[in-house]
Amino acid sequence: RKRYGGREPYNVRLWGIGNELWGRWQVGFCRDAEECAWRTVQFADHMKRVDPSIKLVAVGVDYDPEWNIDMVRIAGGYIDYLSIHTYISVNRQGKTYEDLVAWPIAIEENLKHIYILIEQTRARYGVKRDIRIAFDEWNVWYPEAQPPYLTQITSVKDAIFTALVLNALQRLSKIVPIATFAQTVNVLPLIVVDDEGRMVLTPQYLTFKLYTEAYEGDVVEAKALSDVYRSSELDINVPYIDVSAVYSRDEKGLRLYIVNRNRDEEAEIELKIKGFTPTTLIHKWVSGEDINDKNTFENPDKVKTIERKYSFTTSKTIKLSPHSINIIHLS
């Protein structure tokens, strides 16, 4: 650190001990969860002797409850978060649009089940330390994203998937306080750049930009009454409309994040707000003309964000475009 100009420690507060150590492609691959847990204890012990205040993330698995039980049972007294990664590999899952945008429901339910398992394991083995989830890798993954660069250019349907996961994460913010998208530039990207200096902002990027408007605030309960369709892949009913909401006390404003899954039909929604009387409504959305629309170097603005502003009285009816991600800011 000092050799390269960092005279003082960087004061890093959050550390991940290993990454996907259940995978043979990883440096530090572990044969099983017990080995991983005991090695996590060794690392955590040495690290906390230097700085007891740091927070630690240990390796979990999204589909292996036995692994997660062993990690909490053995290392639970040393860690603060269990890392979970989920990718939807579109050659195996989400093969149709309707199934792809149903998967966030399964992701949300799986994260809930993992947290329940963490709590049950803590109770059974007397682990006093609070442990929550770090959902620190998630995305769609297309067959064209091959090593070494893993490049893909995603479309509107992937933006719908992304918004639905973000809605789920807002609803789960108490048990999943850390969530990071994988990745950012060129590798499974939100942003694609080339050697000529050109840049493409994918529909997934535009979705993230909408959601980052509310980087702090209180998640409040929001419910949508909606028609449903059947996902043949997951064998569940899927509502066309999904919603989450964040209230900012500083701004005295409420943001509704509403996704219309319907491929072909717009949705007319009536907003009813209790305990809050807004006067202004700003509606921003991303949809494109087709679920397969994408931004490219040749046409970088084919999909873009649109904005409208309205007055608000006691209620308001808003039309949502087909296959659209919407943020409605009430203030």
TrEMBL record:
Organism: Ignisphaera aggregans
Domain Alpha-L-arabinofuranosidase C-terminal per the UniProt entry, residue ranges: 136-324
Domain of life: Archaea
SUPFAM superfamilies for the chain: (Trans)glycosidases (SSF51445), Glycosyl hydrolase domain (SSF51011)
Species classification: Archaea, Thermoproteota, Thermoprotei, Desulfurococcales, Desulfurococcaceae
Pfam families: Alpha-L-AF_C
Entry's Gene Ontology molecular function annotations: alpha-L-arabinofuranosidase activity
One record GO biological process: polysaccharide catabolic process
Protein name: Alpha-L-arabinofuranosidase C-terminal domain-containing protein
